[in-house]
Write a structure and sequence with these properties.
The chain contains 13 helices and 20 strands. It has helices at residues 26-37, 68-77, 90-96, 106-112, 115-124, 138-142, 171-180, 232-235, 238-254, 288-291, 296-305, 340-344, 375-389; strands at 5-6, 9-10, 18-22, 41-45, 59-61, 80-83, 101-102, 132-135, 151-155, 165-168, 186-190, 194-204, 210-212, 216-221, 224-230, 258-267, 272-278, 318-324, 349-353, 364-371. It binds adenosine-5'-triphosphate and magnesium ion. It catalyses: 5-amino-1-(5-phospho-beta-D-ribosyl)imidazole + hydrogencarbonate + ATP = 5-carboxyamino-1-(5-phospho-D-ribosyl)imidazole + ADP + phosphate + 2 H(+).
Length: 395
């Protein structure tokens, strides 16, 4: 049942109202900016006193995510509530939903934050996946199909940026990794022969309307997204079509409201399979902030407030480079700020920094969107930007 819609359509939460955000990371910060520019006020629930979103919010409720008093004050103030991170308590979202509109629902988040439930859901939605087995005991691992090796053992909960994962060539290695993970529930996935990876960010509105942004091709380094490329050449491929229709099928069957991202693998044999779902805006959708008529964060605001979805039309090709903490250090490990002047002298370069004070290896400090008139120009500018940043670039 859709409890957000009356006969006259979704009730509008008008500009000027308060919106609630559970989580204070960079996705929350960019959400605040988008919401504030539409005239909303944002209250952020986040325990870190100096978080990226907390410092730009109209109100920072500084408390743990599951603090009952804090959740109550969020729902008292805010007409609609959303979240920016996957490991939010699904139960907290469900209980907030008794008072307020919460998108996405605790139920949908509860499914996608658990790889076991997520994979079962994706499979029953008719979307292809890598072969996998559920591992809830040593016996499950001892009996797992030999065809799953070499594979990747992934903890079912609380993984991100490649954390909670181990590549395992053999069953013996898998048994070791399982013990190292402390025997938590896992999935064992067959290692796939990847040609490349793509993702699609889409929004599903309270009336069920779906809008997808162009697909991005993603390059990971050390398990962390490094480069997303949104090229004209990719958009025409049948993979993008398949990715969009698979993502829409997953969202519809989940009864999902909000912005979500689905990551896909393109295999060497040309097949497209789904990897995982993120129930929120995604790092690979940051290019929309500069290249698209509506960005993914504004789309999140529009869904939760009952405004019509914005146009996902993207005006030009784009490449996003993630700025990780290592960009703040030279080869000798000495602190050295990136050369912002040289970077921003390159035409088509847009810089987004998240206000994090301490650059650390692997920490997402910001990103750079690079725009251009065509694929070739964007590529050339991105190569220039990467050179200024001392970052490998070879697409
Ligand atoms: P993130 O939070 O960055 O999305 P994650 O920790 O949720 O990462 P996954 O998306 O499952 O982890 O995997 C991270 C990366 O590892 C993938 O983008 C892909 O490059 C590689 N990978 C994961 N599963 C497989 C597989 N079955 N076969 C080959 N490569 C894989
Ligand atoms: Mg992933």
């Amino acid at each position: 049942m859709n409890t957000f819609i009356s006969a006259s359509g979704p009730a509008l939460v008008a500009p000027g109202s308060w919106l609630g955000m559970v989580g204070g990371g960079q996705l929350g910060r960019m959400f605040c900016h988008a919401a504030q520019s539409l005239g909303y006020k944002v209250a952020v629930l986040e325990p870190d006193p100096l978080s990226p979103a907390g410092v730009v919010a109209d109100l920072h409720i500084c408390a743990p995510y599951d603090d009952e008093q804090a959740l109550a004050s969020l729902s008292e103030r805010c007409a609609a509530i959303t979240t920016e991170f996957e490991n939010v308590s699904a139960q907290a979202l469900t209980s907030l939903a008794q008072q307020r509109r919460v998108t996405p629902s605790g139920e949908a988040v509860g499914i996608v934050q658990d790889r076991i439930r997520e994979k079962a859901f994706i499979a029953q939605a008719g979307v292809p996946l890598a072969p996998y087995a559920v591992i809830e005991s040593l016996a499950d691992l001892e009996q797992a199909d030999e065809a799953l090796f070499p594979g990747i053992l992934k903890a079912a909960r609380f993984g991100y940026d490649g954390k909670g994962q181990a590549r395992v060539a053999t069953r013996e290695q898998a048994l070791q990794a399982y013990e190292q993970f402390g025997g938590v529930a896992c999935v064992l996935e067959a290692l796939q022969d990847l040609e490349f990876e793509i993702s699609v960010v889409m929004a599903r509105a309270l009336d069920g309307q779906v809008q997808a942004f162009p697909c991005a091709r993603n390059e990971h380094r050390d398990g962390i997204l490094a480069v997303s490329t949104v090229s004209e050449s990719l958009q025409g491929s049948t993979w993008c079509e398949q990715a969009r229709s698979n993502a829409a099928a997953i969202a519809e069957q989940l009864g999902y409201y909000g912005v979500m991202c689905v990551e896909f693998f393109i295999l060497r044999d040309g097949r497209l399979i789904a990897n995982e779902v993120a129930p929120r805006p995604h790092n690979s959708g940051h290019y929309t902030m500069d290249a698209s008529l509506t960005c993914q964060f504004e789309q999140q605001v529009r869904v939760m407030t009952g405004l019509p979805l914005g146009s996902p039309t993207t005006l030009c090709p784009a490449i996003m480079l993630n700025l990780l903490g290592e960009r703040w250090f030279d080869e000798q490990g000495q602190y050295q700020e990136p050369d912002w002047q040289a970077l921003l002298a390159i035409p088509g370069v847009c810089l987004h920094l998240y206000g994090k004070l301490e650059p650390r290896h692997g920490r997402k400090m910001g990103h750079v969107n690079i725009l251009g008139a065509n694929d070739e120009q964007v590529h050339q500018r991105a190569a220039q930007a990467a050179a200024v940043l001392g970052m490998a670039f070879h697409e």
